[in-house]
Amino acid sequence: MIDAYKRKINYLRLSVTDRCNLRCRYCMPATGVIPKQRQEILSYEELYRIAKISVSLGIEKIRVTGGEPLVRKGIVEFLTRLSGIPGLRQLVLTTNGQLLEEMSEDLRAAGVKRVNVSLDSLNADMFGKITRGGELSRTLAGIAAAHQSGLQVKLNVVVMRGVNDMELYDFVAMALDQSLAVRFIEYMPAVEDENWQRYVVPGKEIVERISARYPLQEVPRQRLSGPSRDYRIDGVTGTVGIITPVFDHFCNDCNRIRVTAAGQVKTCLFSNCGFDLKPYLQSSDENALAEILKRLVQ
């Protein structure tokens, strides 16, 4: 699919739940959010139909997200079905890692190629404060288990000035020691946060701070890459990436559409514009669903 700006849309973010077992400070209020009723959330069969039709239209990569996707019952069986869609080249999953240790083998067997793990601090106390109750040891054990099972691992680190930006070198060292890909993300909260800009560390500053200690070589972007600008350090396989939603918008290169767990499809995570897919899912007419997806892209 080619959109009106001549961008090739080949990447689908598919949310399977709005529920999460953490309350990360930049993602939801401390009190949490009122979860949608079960009947409001798309069934696995409906999600599968969307995925299959999307792949038939040119989607080559699917990222399964939430909430926290691993809290939904039956997720492994669903991932197994997704990975079997003809034409799908990459199936990846984003997780907070709290349930990853016990599920990594099953995820690999289901056809998942990579997990992106949210990890904003290597200090147990700070990790608990950022996630409002998460256990660092569980996420680290999940990362180790994912490696052991053969899954590729990327770490997503939301950098917050005065909160965790003093840990940049610790994360780079982890990437080098464990051959991981670490991506530093500019702080851009999904919830209302007065004066949130005070926490933002620009991507340019992050690169400058890291390159003062490590010589960085930029890696050419791959066809199915996300918005990260990636760098290598000579002699190691681990990489460092920067995602800059605030100071260096990557909209020109955006290649994705997004489907929420409640069936809303949109072109941007922060957009209020999109379509409700539920009416089209109630019909057996596959063409109607395909046409609304193409209409969105246009």
The total strand number stands at: 12
Largest sheet: 12 strands, mixed
Task: Give the low-confidence spans.
Answer: none
Rg on CA atoms, Å = 19 Å
Give the averaged pLDDT, no decimals.
93
Distance between the termini: 9 Å
Number of helices: 9
Percentage of residues in strands: 15-25%
Shape: globular
Structural class: alpha/beta
Strand order in the largest sheet: 7-8-9-6-5-4-3-2-1-10-11-12
Which bin fits the share of residues in helices?
25-40%
> H/E element string?
EHEHEHEHHEHEHEEEEEEHH
Tags for this model:
298 residues; alpha/beta; 12-stranded mixed sheet; 12 strands; 31% helix
How does this model look, in words?
The chain has 298 residues and is an alpha/beta fold. The protein is built from nine helices and twelve strands. Helix 6 links the parallel strand 5 and strand 6 (181-186). Helix 2 runs parallel beside helix 3 (100-110) and helix 3 runs parallel beside helix 5 (136-149). The longest helix has 14 residues, at 136-149.
